[in-house]
Design brief:
The chain is mostly helical and 166 residues long. The protein is 79% helix and 0% strand. The chain contains eight helices and no strands.
Length: 166
């Protein structure tokens, strides 16, 4: 990196670090904010040099905001994914026979596969309703769809899951 570019980046970092770190901390929390701040400056350094940037400060701010949005979306998507675990403790404590445990395990595997096979918005709506106990209005707001569309997603999910379990 040239001395001129190095001085520009050092100056940009000194001027913007505090503001960007506060902005990112509000959006994603302190731990992730530092990583996203660093990534913002890396993207500034890696940008296409053929495209002239009029305002370096604005470029950094927009880059940081986009990274924060992507991070929040990714975290939300990970949180909404269905994670199957072992048999619930209550079932294990009931003293089920090995055959019953095998049948329960198979049904759990089929349920997990059926949920994973659903279209993305349909799967999200089902998980939010069934496992997060959200109302249809709350689901509609989170997914950015109408309440009617949520009902259609839930109907489709139930139909496909019932078919997979039968």
């Amino acid at each position: 990196m040239s001395e001129k570019k190095s001085a520009l980046v050092a100056d940009l970092f000194a001027r913007n670090r505090g503001d960007l770190l506060r902005l990112l901390t509000r959006r994603v929390g302190r731990d992730d904010a530092c990583d996203l701040l660093q990534e913002s400056f890396l993207r500034f350094l890696r940008r296409d040099h053929g495209a002239e940037i009029v305002d370096d400060n604005a470029f950094l701010r927009v880059t940081a905001l986009n990274l924060a949005r992507d991070h929040v979306r990714r975290r939300e998507a990970e949180k909404n994914r269905f994670v199957s675990g072992g048999l619930p403790e209550a079932i294990a404590e009931q003293g089920c026979s090995p055959d019953e445990r095998l049948e329960i395990g198979e049904k759990a595997r089929l349920l997990h596969a059926a949920i994973e096979a659903l279209p993305p918005k349909c799967r999200q709506a089902f998980i939010m309703r069934r496992f997060q106990d959200l109302s249809q209005d709350e689901i509609a707001a989170r997914l950015g769809v109408s309440r009617n569309m949520v009902e259609k997603h839930l109907r489709l999910a139930l139909e496909r899951i019932r078919a997979a379990l039968d």
